[in-house]
Sequence to fold (147 residues):
Amino acid sequence: MQRVSDILKGKAKQLWTILPNATVFEALKLMAEKEVGALMVVDKKGKIEGIITERDYARKIVLKGKTSPKTLVKEIMTPSKKMFKVKPDSSVEDCMILMTGKHIRHVPVFEGSKFMGLVSIGDVVKSTISQKDVLINQLSNYIAGQY
Fold:
């Protein structure tokens, strides 16, 4: 069974972060530059404070008539206490159930209080499809008598 830790092993180690006092505009600019849909929000010592996503922007800035150059990340981010999280040994299937059930596209991975990485719904879907392809190939070979 595929685990979240398996997804993290296959991902680049680079994690994009932003400070809570940065503007939402700066966060959006960084997301666009790095082609990511979420940033971890960290304090100056690197401690996780929360997460900001494109969805936060859409729902907490655009729909409320605020402006991204004047709003700080800390005003719209999801604080760490309210973030949904998974463990590295969580199954990919459980991760997908959490993400679809809670309508979230990014989930931080924590081992106790230690941050391990960030998994996107795209990562989970890619992993699931890959596992299904392997199974189909094995079954095809079995049926064809190659085992």
In short: The chain has a mean pLDDT of 90.
